[in-house]
Design brief:
This protein starts with a helix and ends in a 6-residue tail after the last helix. It is 78% helix and 0% strand. It is mostly helical. The chain has five helices and no strands. Helix 2 runs parallel beside helix 5. Bound molecules: hydroxy diiron-OXO moiety.
C-alpha cells in the first residue's frame, strides 16, 4: 500500500518524466530541421527513454494499489538558439530531475516506505549516468568551439556517441 502523499509525489514525477520526453522530442525535431542528423537521432532516443521512465513509474504506482494519472503536460519550447544552448537546457533539465528523484528518496524515508525507496534506486543510478553523459557532450561541444565547421564536427561527435550507446544497449538496439 502506498500513502496518499507518496502517490501524489509519484504522479508529479510521472508528469516530469513525461515533460522530459516531449521536450526531447521537440529538440529532436529542431535538430532534424537544422540538418543535425546525429543530434536528432540522439534526442529521439532520449525522448523514448524518458517515456519508458514515465511508464516504469506508472506501472509501479498501479502495482502498489495507487492510481497512476495520465498527466497534463505543458507544451515544450520548439526553437533553440544553438545546439550548445540546447544541450545546456538538457543538462539543466536532468539536474532538475535528479533533485526531484532525491526528494522522492527523502520522502520514502519520511514515510518509512521501503518498497518505494528500493524502487527509486534504479532512478538514482540512471540520473547519475544521464548527468555524466550530458556533461561529456557539453565538454566536447565546448572543445570543438565556434569555428566554421563546428556544427559538422559536433554532429559527428553525436554519431559516435550514438554508436557507443547502441553498442552498450546490445545488438537489438543497433541499426
Ligand atoms: Fe528520466 O530523466 Fe532523464 O534520465
Amino acid at each position: 500500500m502506498i500513502t496518499p502523499t507518496m502517490e501524489q509525489a509519484l504522479n508529479k514525477q510521472i508528469a516530469l518524466e513525461g515533460y522530459a520526453s516531449l521536450l526531447y522530442l521537440s529538440m529532436a525535431s529542431w535538430c532534424e530541421k537544422e540538418g543535425l542528423e546525429g543530434s536528432a537521432k540522439f534526442m529521439y532516443r532520449q525522448s523514448e527513454e524518458e517515456r519508458q521512465h514515465m511508464l516504469r513509474l506508472f506501472r509501479y504506482l498501479n502495482e502498489m494499489d495507487g492510481h497512476a494519472l495520465s498527466p497534463s503536460i505543458p507544451e515544450p519550447p520548439h526553437f533553440f538558439n544553438s545546439v550548445r544552448e540546447m544541450f545546456e537546457q538538457v543538462y539543466q533539465h536532468e539536474q532538475k530531475v535528479t533533485r526531484a528523484i532525491h526528494d522522492l528518496v527523502a520522502l520514502s524515508y519520511e514515510e518509512k516506505d521501503h518498497t518505494t525507496l528500493n524502487f527509486l534506486q534504479w532512478y538514482v543510478a540512471e540520473q547519475r549516468e544521464e548527468e555524466a553523459l550530458m556533461r561529456t557532450i557539453l565538454d566536447r561541444i565546448k572543445l570543438i568551439g565556434n569555428g566554421e565547421r563546428s556544427l559538422y564536427f559536433i554532429d559527428k561527435e553525436m554519431e559516435q556517441i550514438n554508436a557507443a550507446e547502441a553498442a552498450a544497449e546490445g545488438p537489438a538496439a543497433e541499426e
